[in-house]
UniProtKB/TrEMBL annotation:
Family matches, as InterPro entries: CCR4/nocturin_mRNA_transcr (IPR050410), Endo/exonu/phosph_ase_sf (IPR036691)
Domain of life: Eukaryota
Region listing for Disordered, in residue ranges: 87-107
Gene3D superfamilies: Endonuclease/exonuclease/phosphatase
The protein's name: Endonuclease/exonuclease/phosphatase domain-containing protein
Transmembrane segments: none
Length: 107
């Protein structure tokens, strides 16, 4: 995770509570995190995340993609499942949209 980076966007990494993946890119010339999933903490909560690749496996391979992790690129898949949080304040009903008469002629 990037230390010292601050913002007011209200976003968080899905892996903040479990620890960032040490490798989202694994090649002979580079091993490290490049990919992140950021989400809005006001509207979403994290239900689940895909775990990292076991280190004992990584010690046996040169990099990705390979026969066990086929891909079009050298990035590892990171996945998260979210739950949409209900709004904090009650939403007022919006009136239905009004369309111009010309759009009704085609219906």
């Amino acid at each position: 995770m990037l230390e010292g980076l601050r913002h007011r966007l209200g976003t968080k990494s899905v892996y903040a509570s479990t620890g960032e993946h040490p490798n989202t890119n694994y090649t002979p010339s580079f091993q490290g995190p490049l990919d992140y999933i950021w989400y809005s903490t006001a509207n979403l909560s994290v239900n689940a995340v895909v775990g990292e690749v076991d280190n004992s496996y990584l010690e046996k391979v040169v990099g990705f993609p390979n026969a066990h992790f086929p891909s079009d690129c050298d990035h590892l898949c990171i996945v998260s499942e979210f739950c949409v949080r209900p709004p904090k304040e009650p939403q007022t009903a919006r009136p239905p949209p009004v369309f111009p008469e010309s759009s009704r002629a085609h219906a």
